[in-house]
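Technical appendix A lists one of the benchmark inputs used to test multi-chain prediction within the project. The record comprises two sequence entries:
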Amino acid sequence: NAGVTQTPKFRVLKTGQSMTLLCAQDMNHEYMYWYRQDPGMGLRLIHYSVGEGTTAKGEVPDGYNVSRLKKQNFLLGLESAAPSQTSVYFCASSYSRQSVRGADGYTFGSGTRLTVV
Amino acid sequence: ELKVEQNPLFLSMQEGKNYTIYCNYSTTSDRLYWYRQDPGKSLESLFVLLSNGAVKQEGRLMASLDTKARLSTLHITAAVHDLSATYFCAVRGGSQGNLIFGKGTKLSVKP
């Protein structure tokens, strides 16, 4: 199993450009998440999804949009990139909170390092 | 709002020494996780602690949970260089059961 796959791994954007980060998981997980990691800030939740067709805001949603058209994919979009969005982005997935198997926690992707200049 | 605090945030140790990383959280939760992150890499699950008094050990790392004190510890025994990494604790407590992460403890083990 590939687990959680993120593409691209690296990207440099100019201010105002747009892009989409793709997250794909092959574990049949219901829940998927997007986090950003910044030095000294830990991981902060941007958006999450509890199932196909559903999305919800996390702690730092401004400037981002998401979609979950298929259960296995969770897309993170930046419509107009800003230097403040320079960060490492991690996607994660998990079973639902009600599932015993949810005790396993999250499976993380390898991350996308995004620089906005 | 659930808050998770780790300390110390930076830890420089000599090989062979013991030390403990602390993770405090502000509201009741039924699950606590420890993750390891190597530089430039993703997060790797180390332990999940599900009940008060739970203790798990793997190699030189041992994690414990005191739900009454809302405290988890990650104890390092006889540290070796390979343990150098950033360690995160995370507590389940978001509105949909999402994990809230501490800021991480960057551990550096020197010869």
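Chain B touches chain A through 24 residues (CB under 8 Å). DSSP finds no helices and eleven strands in chain B. Comparable benchmark entries are summarised in Table A2.
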